[in-house]
Amino acid sequence: MEWLTTVDHKKIAVLYLVAGGMFFLIGGLEALLIRIQLMKPEFDFVPAHTFNELITMHGTTMIFLAAMPLIFALMNIAVPLQIGARDVAFPFVNALGFWMFFFGGLLLNLSWFLGGAPDAGWTAYAPLSGPDFGSNGVNFYVVGLQIAGLGTFIGGINMLATIVNMRAPGMSFMRMPMFVWTSFVTSIIILFCFPAITVGLVLLMFDRLFDANFFDVANGGNPVIYQHLFWIFGHPEVYILIIPAFGILSEVITTFSSKRLYGYSSMVFATVLIGFLSFMVWAHHMFTTGLGPVANSLFGVATMLIAVPTGIKIFNWIFTMWGGHIRFTTANLFAVAFIPTFVIGGVTGVMLASPPADFQYHDTYFVVAHFHYVIVGGLIFAVFAGLFYWWPKLFGRMLSETMGKWTFWLFFTGFHMTFFVQHFLGLMGMPRRVFTYLKGQGWDELNFISTIGAFLMAAGTIVFLVNIAVTARKPVGAPADPWDGRTLEWTIPSPPPEFNYAQIPLVRGLDALWVEKTEGNKEMVPSEPLGPIHLPSPTILPFLMSVGLFIAGFGFMYAGQHFDNGLAQALFNNYIVAGIGLALFFACMFIRSLFDDRGFHVEPEGLQEKGAKA
Ligand code: HEM
Ligand SMILES: [Cu+2]
User: Fold this and answer.
1) In this structure, which of 257, 442, 578, 593 has its CB flanked by the most CB atoms within 10 Å?
2) Which of 46, 55, 230, 384 to mutate to test the pocket of ligand 1 (most atoms within 8 A of CB)?
3) Which residues are near ligand 1 (CB < 6 Å)?
4) Is 29:461 a contact under the CB 8 Å cutoff?
5) Sign of torsion, CA 62 397 522 502?
6) Could you tell me the pTM of the whole model?
7) Which protein residue's CA is at the shortest distance from atom 9 of ligand 1?
8) Cα 259 to Cα 112, 250, 256, 270, distances in angstroms
């Protein structure tokens, strides 16, 4: 119950971690099934139709239900702590964002048990996803992603408000830790790009559930519009994922090099520039749809431009390590391995940005190799780095470094085995999204190697799970500052008290804790006297609101269905179920606006001994 009603950012971080981790395992299982099917030519491990469901659900799950929530988990752990705040700006909205994501993802995954998963690819291009071709599963895609997407959207707005408003005195924008900066830029991208996919999904929903014709050529619709809407969202989306990864990397590399970040202000501007450019390049996903040479050239050049700020970042990380006192902890191993891996993904990205070359690579395994180098080799490596880095802060227990190194080497080796060879498979012409292939085309060995690599990654993940289980049994006893850190989160106990900071600290420079350390101070100077701390009360409303949307989703999806049971028929076909769900949702909203939450106060008695100064 405590977990269903919490509004504490640290607990919500744990919820995101558990739910995102669970979906990561489901997506990973789907990936293993895909790879087993492709292990040898003309294999019949899964039928063709199931294969389509698997690639659709793997891509969708990994992007929307694993990668995004894991990023949100890390933002929820670190952002309020790093800016010296007691929580996010709107704790209620934070909880609501989580529960909407969770119930949207649940709805999507229930499709496996309710007549089959979506099968139109993770991009759900119309008309393949439209009423004529898409299976019933596509309804789960359009409805589930709308609910989950709304959750992410309000989560992003909340982060934005938090970073703008809740910074400790003295923390100007140019003194914010890089991870806070990247969370800030990511939240802005979420703000601008989620509406695009929501519009795309709503139009698709109208086509499917209410007989509209937005993407139906026979009735004057245009499916290319769907592609534009999808990629206006979809391209910035990959930057939503990779920009926070850049931030994690900057934190981890500076801490474990015992140096300040090289070129901080150029890092900030590069981040902002990448965020801006991410909106200018979406049509590089559509070179082959016939936009014409002018559009293709412009989008090609714009895409290549992103390499400039990215290069600035890569060099800054290398210069940060240069001459530093480097400690290769597990977190830092993942961070350092990110650099060359991400560079490979970036180079293939520039190759793909050239329209004539893309005509060759398009829809081959070259593309699959490229985006996995960026997303797994970039984002997932960074998530591992971030988890090993912040785990002691969140749970008060250190993960085992020995097992951590096993995880790293298994995952790292497996990753390159899986995806490096796919570049060559693509160049040799193996198409993406085929469920099998004929032998004798030179693809057999490379596919086999790729499958073995996938199992190594799975083994690395299992070692990580064992590590978590073993660590959970250890007593809580991690020091406040286990890594000799530079930023504010390391000034408070691990795990932090409910209110994070007994007294909000005064920030006197970039790397606020490091500034104090170099001046010989053991702790931060407080910016306020010790007094009672006001916190919001826990509430079940965000959970119930999300349940309401979940019920409404089913109501709409099944409104046109025929049921044998007369009662079910009456309830669904007259939109009664949909109405009940929406009524629950709005009733909770109404209650929330009617009754003031007075919250409660924590008396910081006894904090004096714990180091707080009056
Ligand atoms: C968080 C990590 C991952 C993300 C975000 C991710 C994302 C994606 C996406 C978006 C697709 C495209 C699906 C499509 O073509 O419709 C895909 C396909 C695929 N992924 Fe992943 N993936 C991840 C991890 C993995 C792992 C660990 C493996 C290896 C075991 C893997 C293997 C595959 C395969 C084999 C395909 C199918 C390619 C095709 O035939 O189209 N992925 N992935
Ligand atoms: Cu793109």
Assistant:
1) 257
2) 55
3) 28, 31-32, 34-35, 55-56, 58-59, 62-63, 66-67, 121-122, 368, 372, 375-376, 380, 418, 432-433, 454, 457
4) no
5) positive
6) 0.94
7) 59
8) 50, 11, 8, 20
